[in-house]
Input
Amino acid sequence: MALRVIEPGLLTTVQDLGRFGHGILGVSAAGAADTLSLRVGNRLVGNPQDAGALEMTLVGGTFETDVPAVVALAGSAFKATIEGPATSAGPRPDMRPLPLWTAVRVAVGELVRLGPTRSGARCYLCARGGVEVPRVLGSVSTHLLSGIGGFQGRALRRGDRIEIGPDPGEPLRRLSIAPREIEEVILRGILRVTEGPQADWFAPESLAEFHRASYEVTEQADRMGLRLVGPAPIPTGSRQMLTEGVCLGAVQLPESGQPIVLFVEQQTTGGYPKIANVIAADLPALGQLRPRNRVRFEPVSMAQAHAAFREQERRWTNALEPA
Output
C-alpha cells in the first residue's frame, strides 16, 4: 500500500518517536514534535506507538491511497475531509468530514484532504501499517537540519509516493476519554519548568519576573527551537560559560535576553545560560505552539515533574480500548 502526495501542505515530514543515543555525534533525536498525539494516533489504527506517520505543520496536505486503508488524525484540529473518487462527470462527490481521534476507512481513489489548522500547530496522519522508509540510526524520523531519515531526508513534495507497511494484525482502537481531555494536555498555554543549570545566575526577583511574564512565540519558530519575545531576564554580574551539552526543552537566554526554547532538532551543545527546562509531560504542548501564541512558564520541583509524567503515562496508557 502507498499514499500518493497530491499536495504536500506547508511542511509535511515522516516522523516517529525519534532516534536516541547519538547526541555525542552531534545528532539530536528529531522525531514527532507532539509525541503524545503520534502515539495515540498510531494506537487508534492498531500500530505500535512508535510507527512512522506524517507530521503536518500549520497547513495540511492532500493524499490518495492505492488500496483500501485505515487512517486516523491526531493532534491539533486541522480542517479535514475525505473526498470520493474522481468521476468523468466532474468534481469528486461524497465529501465527508474526517474527524480527529477516530480510525476511519478510506477506499481506493479517495482523497484525504487537510487544510489549515484551527487550533495548535501540528497534526499527524497515521495509517494502519505505518509509514515504511529506510531506518537511519534506528529511526524513520526526518532530521531536516542534517537531511537524514524520513523520505529522502526532506519534507514531502507533490508526486511523492509513501510506502505503507503490512497490516500489524492488532485490533483497531477507540478513545475511552473525551477528546477535549487530550486538548487540555497538548494545547496548554502554561508550560511547567524545572530550574536550569544556570538558574542561580539570576537574582530571585529576575526569576520571579520570568515566571510571571507572558511570552509570545515569534515567526522564528521551527523544529530546531522556538524564539520568544517578552521581558528579558538579566543575569547578575558578568559571567562567561563554556559550551556544554543541551537538551530538549532547555530555555536558553542569548545576549538579547529573549528566550529560545530548544526543540526536537536542537543543536546538541550550546554556550548560552539555561534558566529553565520544560518538563517531559509538557513537551507535547511545546510542539503545538505556533507563531503569535502566548505562553507562560510555571516553576515546579523535579519531584512534581516526575509525578506529572507518571500520571500522564498512566492516563494515556488506559485511554484506548478495542473498537
Summary: The CA atoms of residues 16 and 52 lie 5 Å apart. The radius of gyration is 20 Å. The chain has a mean pLDDT of 94. Residues 302-317 form the longest helix (16 residues).
